[in-house]
Request: fold
Amino acid sequence: MASNRHLGRIIALQTLYEQELRQEASDDSFDLNEVLKRNIARYQQMLEDKDFVAQLVKGVSKQAESLDAKLQPVAPEWPINQIARMDRLVLRIGLYELENEADVPPKVVINEAVELAKAFGGDNSSKFVNGVLGTLLRESEVKPKAAAKVKAKASSKKPAKKAITKKSKAKPTGDK
Reply:
């Protein structure tokens, strides 16, 4: 099944890549469902989990803007529209899986994204993808832990008792 999902991710990447190219070219005849169906049909004999591919493609396509908004702060020196198209799509797929595929361990998702970047991206794509997705994973792991600590600390605190002190009635002394 793992290699099957790897092939599924490749098909998803191809489909999303074609979508971006054709949309950029203002191709009004583009139909995501048709392209997805055609790309799945090419590998029908080797692909068992067609639903995984469809869910991945449609989810990434639908959430592209929100995924980009989450990716941008992690790589602020690279505006999202200046990241190479293939790297951007691999990052979107990886982030989508991290957020939506509970049955796939996060390290597997990142490893798969790195492999896609090695196969289809530039010379440094795999390092870039690994760095960005690794940072997002660490941040997502830290936030729940920090929130739990704050909550636990707040619930364990008892209201502080005010200390009762008498005001000093001593008069200042002065040398005259």
Confidence is low (pLDDT under 50) at residues 165-170.
